[in-house]
Queue: 3 jobs
Job 1
Amino acid sequence: MRDAYKAFIHGSQAIIPQGVEEIDAFAFWKCSDLTSIEIPESVRKIGENAFDGCSGLTSIKIPNSVTELGDGVFQHCSGLTSIQIPNSITKIPDNAFWGCTGLTSIEIPDSVTEFGKFAFWGCSGLTSIDIPRDETRISQGAFEGCSELLSISIPDSVTDIGDYAFRRCTRLSNIILPQNVTRIGRSAFERCNITSIEIPDSVEEIGFSAFGYCSKLHSIRIPDSVKVIDSFAFASCTALTQIEIPKSITTINESTFSRCDGLTHVVIPDNVSEIRKHAFFGCARLSSIELPQGVKIWPHVFHDCTAVKEIKLKETDPEKIDASLYISGLHDLTKISVLVSSGSENAYRNHEFFGKFKEILPCKL
């Protein structure tokens, strides 16, 4: 069927005659010499990958008659710098503009209520985008790799930030999350340039590596609405100097704050019953730790935390926490002071394991 469309190509231009209602899938696939195309008002649908690989196309106008775009419709159109999407379109399909590295701007009408997966993946020339006001979800990988994206406006209608949504948007430094978002997906803002962010009170879940490797992130507010902070959520956020773990969290997952070199002090709230392996691995400046009663500590939680000088323990019975601390990966116990509740200091001083620490001191906890 693709051969039939060759008749519409005249040199570097394609003129589709009036009366054609559908441009078939892969119709102009890899027509890299094509620089312009005229689509008549009779066209209702443009099929999947119809213009995939048309790297010579610089602009295209989609008529108001078109109501459906197929997956990957303009994928790898690396020369495309602008496109006008009509009000007749309600969905930007999966991979629609994947790898359109020359695309610098795009106007998305309010008629669009759904973004497909990886819709603008790798659009490295895109500097800003306004998401339509009725959009409810930023789909998986929708803007991943948009390395020049400086700002984005997310409407209040959005409730879900999908996996990889803004991953590797390396110039994105400021973002405001709307008050209705309930989930921040896996690697959603991984390797972004964000310096600070406030998580709204509606958020219940922060996904795996959601803010991982955001090396300029220095402050973040996590509300008590958050019930799950997944593994590696803030790993290698090297500028992060403090973190307040919400009271709603019961488990600190694997490597959640690993290699957060700027952290100097951490207080584990009373509701936390488990800290999983490598949770604070490699936090090189961490000097003070406060742990609640009854907490289970997995191996290497504090491995390579070489600056630790003080540990506050709310546990009054040393037998209930000695094994956990023994495997936690703490370095050179002789340089670490242990602060315990007044009245329990003698039990700690007479304990074989805690006798290896620098000193046992009573305090009010």
Job 2
Amino acid sequence: MEKREFIDAGRIVNTHGVAGEVKIEVWLDSPKFFRSFKRIYLGEREMKVVSARTHKDFVIAKLEGIDDINAAMALKGREVTVRREDAALPHGAFFLQDILGARVVDEDGNDVPQGVHGELLVKGEMLFSGYWKNEKETENVMDNGWLHTGDMAYLDADGFYNICGRKKHMFISLGENIFPLEIENFLSGYPEIADSYVFGVPDHERGEVGKVIIVLREGCELTEDEVIARMKGKLSTLKIPRYVQFVPKVPRNEVGKVQTCVVEELYGLKGAGI
């Protein structure tokens, strides 16, 4: 059966994607398609539906998590019903379905209370058994069946696990844990900013402070002072980056992940940034 015939037969309920922008193709206009179609699952830092012509509402769920678990089946994002073209997706949380167990733990591996930040651990039959021919790395991430995801998270009152960012990207300023993802999410709300990346740099007084590199949308202008001013009163003082630098692009690999080594080389203390 051809793809269009299969879709029109009403046999597809869910579909998955990874791109930062998802274009709903013209053939999705089919009323027959939407007879069964319910959800699109996505896994990416920024997601935006740029073309959606629908005969009924459909749901988009953002998935977050590491590649060592089947996110599409294990982690279900907060769902957003799309009713109009160009509908932006917020940065969401997720809850674990029954096939996985989850814990949020401190540095000593102890469970933390609701609302307290810690590392997310998951356990279940859907996990991988280990890294291929790399027992050392497997031992580093597996602990009695629990997988250390490397994601910092907290459990909210609604039972959702909220991702704060990668543990290795967190930096500490005057004893406070700073999660760059929170700052990046805040900046993404401004139409002039196409992309941004926040990272920690050494500081004599605070230990570490933030630096943000920003890519402006074509034709838009912002100054460093304007960026800082927008964050004041919205983010705590320690979360506001000390340094702001505008760059042509944030170095990313083929799947959209930031190339941190390249960022450090170009824009860190050893680069031309500071």
Job 3
Amino acid sequence: MAYDRDALFELIKVELESDAHLSLTDLSRRIHVGRHTLSKAVKDAAGLSFRAFRSRQLLGQAKVLLGNSPQGSIKEIAFEMGYGSQRALARFIKKQTSLQTRNFRQTIVHSDRLYDRARHSTRRNRDYRNVSSGSLPMVIAGTSVDIRLFMLSSTSSGT
């Protein structure tokens, strides 16, 4: 049976948003599509294995929850994300980012501030052309952090 891989990928994203800890086998059973087909759809659309994509989705959810409540309890966030303990969430974040949970939270808050400053300064600067937004890997205190910045394209700098 042929599937529309884009539509299938969108369905996978929706299912993972409702249950981010869903295994490939459980997802396959839930939507009645073979594991191989699901895995191939994720690989084609995201360029990642199902497990890596699911981890990326979970990390994104953690970024949102930790960033939206900078003073909130990590334990409550862990339970909200479906982890059995604060420690389980901490292990996941450490494995994905090499950062402790509190440091991960600080980089989220810090990167949002940098993003806001960059966006604000770009608006004031009347000399820009072809400004593009992107995700730029940046090193802060020896750790790799994903910081959203507005960058001037090479055409506006004359190179």
